[in-house]
Specification:
The strands form two sheets. Strands 2, 4, 5, 6, 9, 10 and 11 form a seven-stranded mixed β-sheet that branches. A four-stranded antiparallel β-sheet has the order 1-3-8-7, with no helix packed on it. The protein contains no helices and eleven strands. It is an all-beta fold.
Amino acid sequence: VQLQASGGGLVQVGGSMRLSCAASGRTFSSYVMGWFRQAPGKEREFVASITWSAGSTIYANSVKGRFTISKDSAKNTVYLQTGSLRPEDTAVYYCASTPLGSTKYELWGQGTLVTVSS
């Protein structure tokens, strides 16, 4: 059972980038998939989440209106489309999963670095 994050890289301020999280090893239909990020010297923070079955989404205030989380059930993949990127969005982005109804994310991907350059 694993989550594989990809899609990070270097992008200019105002640009966009799509991150992917490929899930494998089990059925995730009763899970919530989340994206988190950790900037250098800072605590890890929640970015967005989506319920695998209903597609309900939640966003952190800092990314609302700029980022979009989505899923492709056929590919067992969750995406984070980022936009209007700012230097403060620079971080390692992680995807994670938690059973529906739980608040503790128990499976984590390896992280992908997004660097926003001014």
